[in-house]
Input
Amino acid sequence: MLASDSKLIRIRNFEACLGVVLEIKEPVGFKRRYLNFIEEIKSAYQISSPRNVFKSYELKRKLGLQDFEDVAQNFVNIVIADSCRIHIVFASFNTKKVEKVIYYRKDRRKRQQEKKTIEFLRHLSSYFPYVAAWSAIFNDEAISFDNIEIHLDSFDGEVTYAWEILKNNISAKIKTFPKGDQCNPFISASDIVLSLVEINLLKGDFRLDVQELKKLLEKYNIKGSITHCGTNKIKYITPISSQKIPEALDYAEPVIYVVPGQIKKEWIENSPKFEYVLKYAQFVEGGVKFLNIDRDYEFIRDTDVLAYFDDAGKVLAKNISSLYDVECKSISEIINETKY
Output
C-alpha cells in the first residue's frame, strides 16, 4: 500500500511542490502502531478529543512547534521505523529554460492553453498527491506496483499522462479520501512526515536537493528514495485533457457528506460535534466532504452517508435520500455510534 500527501512550500523566494509517499508493508500492524502512538500523545499532552487521527497542522496547534517536531521525530522512530519506506518527491522547474507549459494537448473539445511555468507549478500543487505517488512508483524499482492500493488525500485536477499510467497501465486501486489527513491513519502519517521534512528545510538544516534529502533520510535511519520531478517530467504531469478528476469511482467508500442547513460550514467544521463525524469516517474507513449541492449529484453513491446538523439539513438530506437511496444520519446518531 502507498499513502500520499503533499503541499506547496515556499523557502524565501523559491516555490516547489513537496510530497511524501509512504510505502507501507503491513497496513494492519502500521495502523495499530499509529493509533497507539496518538493515544499516548493525547494522554501526555492532555488533548481532549474523541478522535485519534490528526493532521499535522492540528498537532502543531495543540503541541506547539518545538514539541511537534520532537513528537514527529518519535513518530518516525516508533511508527515508521522498519515498517515503511519513505519516498520524498519534489517538483521544481527552471523558469528561464521553460517559460511556458502547454495544457490540453489531447483534448479535442478544448483549445490548447499556455500557462506560465510558475502558474503551472501552483496548479500542480492541487493534484500533487497522485503525481507524487506516480513519480515514486516509476522511479524506484523496489516498489512492486501491480494493482497496488494507493490512498490519496483529497485533490482537484485534470487528466494527465501520469494519471492514465496509474489508472490504465498498472491498474492501481486508487482511493481518494476527502479530509484524509484527519480520518485516515495512513494519509495522516504521510502528512506528519511531510511536515517534519518541511521543518528541516525551513530551518535550513537541509536543502531541497536530491543528495541533501538523502542525508535527511539517513538522519532518521529510514529507507526510501528521493525523486526530483523536474523539467523532463513536465509532459507527464501537465493536464492533457480538461476532464476533471478524481471521478466517483476514485473516492473511498463511504464518503460522509455533511449536508448544509442553516448553520454555516465554518461553524460546523470547528465545532466539537464535527470531531465525531471525522471519527465515524475513520471507523468506516471513508472520507468526509461538505455536500456541494451543485456538483455532488455526479459522485454520490448508495454506499455513502448523508450527515445533518439541523432541521434544514435534515429536510435536504431526506429529499436527496429519497432520490438516491442513500443512508441519512443525524449528528446525534453519529455521536452515539462513535462515543465509545
